[in-house]
Amino acid sequence: MIVRHGGRSDVGAVRVNNEDSFLADPQTQLFVVCDGVGGRAGGAEASSLAVEHIGQMVAKNRRAIEEFATGTGQTARRDVASILERAISDASRRVRHHALANPQLSGMATTAASLLVTGDQAFVGHVGDSRVYLMRAGVLHCLTEDHSVANDRKRRGRLPDTSIAAAQSEALTRALGVLDTARVDLLDLEVLPRDRFILCSDGVHGVVGDELMQALGSRGDVQRVADELIEAALQKGAPDNATAVVVDVLDDAAEDRAMRVRRRLEAIQSVTMFRYLAFADLMRVAGIARELRWPAGTAFFKEADPGDSMYILLDGTVGVSKSGLELTTLKPGAHFGEMALIERAPRSATVVAKTDCDVLVIEREGFYGLLSEETTAVKLLWGLVRMLNYRLRLTSDELTHLKMGLQ
């Protein structure tokens, strides 16, 4: 995997000091943007310490990360995610203890947004309101959710509180340096050829906006894009420090893999439960799905069997029967067995592959793992409600038609 990067940081038009810091390490393929929390003493030191610590911790685990990339060791995807999570969380302790040892820096804190590219995977970890974006096929996707008072209200479906001052609304709910550890939001995804990532502080995304960022981010090489994002922030007044790091992933030999990834995402999004998920949440679902080949004549499950998985049909056809009577034939794009994600009840029908089939399998354990993630759980549960509502309406229609046929 070839990775190219460009980056730039600017004090902006108002601030006296630049409290942003960034790291772009081509050796570990780690990229980090940290933004010292405004109004706190030692913001510049906090961001610098965090960047340094995260870089050092990832570098110490470089061998394990390379083993994952090459498939030559025992390192699994979750292990790489844990390395990044620990590096960011431990940076909170480093910042806090430095402040305790230097009373004039009391209260120093910083955000952190990070990207680690290894093999064909990208790992994103963040705390605060610095962001990581993905530009894929000309479309900009935000991969992170701000940890702020305003965004928490938005995520919970609450209207903005006009009684809260703007500064309070923008206050962070998570930052490095507040406690010895920090709760880190993590996301891992399979990278595709010509994917472009943009890491930036709120001095960029809060000023430039997503629409202009998409326009600027889709043209030019990495350094040019980083420069143009900063220039755009400066032209709009740049009330805060502005930092942008742009990362390109180049792998023209991976077109077949790219097609498979796109097919999986489209199949997942076709399921009612996942249809309205944001891109980052779709990637989380894709992360727990396994693609398997099911030979013709093989049963996925039989009536009354216990079940813990749902299936999404990518290719081939399957037959559904009950009490020996064939009910229907499912084609690519169909899904079945989803109720097993909710409860461990006996299967209500038998499903057999009529032809060789490619399927995505999502297991209950992985699904429950997603429900434990605050940023994804509410969206999944709403999707589940939609799916159950659809099933109820479908059953009601079938019963109505049956009743009319008997009259």
Structural write-up:
The structure is a single chain. This protein has 407 residues and is α+β, with helices and mostly antiparallel strands. It has 2 domains: 2-250, 4-Layer Sandwich (Phosphatase 2c, domain 1), CATH 3.60.40; 257-406, Jelly Rolls (Sandwich), CATH 2.60.120.10. Helix content is 39%, strand content 26%. The chain has a 5-stranded antiparallel sheet with strand order 1-10-9-6-7. Helix 1 (43-60) packs antiparallel against helix 3, helix 6 crosses helix 8 and helix 9 packs across helix 10 (279-288). It is elongated. The protein starts with a strand and ends with a helix.
Percentage of β-strand residues: 25-35%
Question: If you average the pLDDT, what whole number results?
Answer: 89
CATH class descriptor name of the largest domain: Alpha Beta
Named CATH topology of the largest domain: Phosphatase 2c, domain 1
Can you name the CATH architecture of the largest domain? 4-Layer Sandwich
Radius of gyration: 24 Å
Topology order in helix (H) and strand (E) letters: EEEHHHEEEEHHEEHHHEHHEEEEEEEEHH
How many individual β-strands? 18
- The order of strands across the largest sheet is 1-10-9-6-7
The total of helices stands at: 12
Indicate how many domains the architecture comprises. Answer: 2
- CATH homologous superfamily placement of the largest domain: PPM-type phosphatase domain
Profile the largest sheet. 5 strands, antiparallel
Inertia-based shape: elongated
Helix content: 25-40%
